[in-house]
Amino acid sequence: MPGLPSQIAEHAATLPEGTPIRANGLLHLGNRAAVDQALSRLVRRGLLLRVCRGVYMRPIETRFGVRAPGAETVIEALSSLWGETIVPSGGAAANVLGLTTQVPVRLVYLTSGPNRVLRLYALIIRLLHAPRWQLVAPGRPAGLAIRALAWLGPAEVERNIERIERRLDRADLAELAVIRSALPSWIATPLSALVAHG
Fold first, then answer.
1. CA–CA separation, 31 vs 42, rounded Å?
2. Terminal Cα-to-Cα distance of the chain (whole angstroms)
3. Which long-range contacts (CB under 8 A, 24 or more apart) does 159-163 make?
4. Ramachandran sector of residue 37 (left: φ over 0; alpha: ψ -120 to 50; beta: rest)
5. What is the pLDDT of residue 197?
6. pLDDT digits (tens, 9 = 90+) for 100-156
7. How high is the pLDDT of residue 164?
8. How far is CA 76 from CA 3, 70, 90, 144, in A?
9. If both were cysteines, with which of 29, 95, 156, 191 could 180 make a disulfide (CB 3.0 to 4.6 Å apart)?
10. Calpha distance 129→28 (Å, rounded)
11. pLDDT of residue 115
């Protein structure tokens, strides 16, 4: 019978890219101390990647070498694992919407959970706890618009609201109209004027 590290490595090899591996999901293979030790050995051997405390993933082998799972894949998997909302930061949202040409140097996501740092080899991803209103409409253009406006700040909202309007379709604007009551007044007021004129 193969040793515990080999059993875990075989199990990890069957998982799709970005699937989180945690010690408590491997307790059918051995006791907690043995599983923890086996996971540490697999990380040292390069067969697993320690993403953050208690969460591991299988590196992806390509013809060019080994790489970490894709950042978006990791974020989606961890959002599901932890039951948290995780969305791109306001700077990234502003870039997507064309409100800035600055490309964020650091990968930062906003989360409903605690602050965390994820490590995918040389790539560092920061998860920052954010208020609920900044996490609305995850994965949708209306949510990107809210996060971009939050990042721009009160002094820039009026100047950029029409630029955002041009980037959104009717459904997105209707969604903004619905969620504006959950937003701070410095965003809700210009959005109300936009909705009234739209």
1. 17
2. 69
3. 160/99, 161/190, 161/191, 161/193, 161/194, 162/194, 163/97, 163/98, 163/99
4. alpha
5. 66
6. 877 777 899 999 999 999 999 999 999 999 999 999 999 999 999 999 999 999 988
7. 87
8. 32, 10, 18, 17
9. 191
10. 34
11. 97
Is the distance from CB of 176 to CB of 168 less than 8 angstroms?
yes
CA dist., res. 187 & res. 181, Å (int) = 10
User: Burial of 169 by CB count in 10 Å (0-12 exposed, 13-18 middle, 19+ buried)?
Assistant: exposed
Calpha distance 102→26 (Å, rounded): 43
Q: What is the pLDDT of residues 3-23, one digit of tens each?
A: 899 999 999 999 999 999 999
Q: Give the whole-number percent of the chain exceeding pLDDT 70.
A: 98
H helices present in 14-153, as ranges: 32-44, 71-82, 90-96, 141-152
* Amino acid identity at 84: E
Supply the DSSP symbol for 21: B
| The CATH fold of domain 4-67 | Arc Repressor Mutant, subunit A (1.10.10)
Residue 121 in contact with residue 49, Cβ under 8 Å?
yes
Distance CA 9, CA 41 (A): 11
User: 104: which 2 tokens?
Assistant: 């964020």
Structure tokens at 118: 């994820």
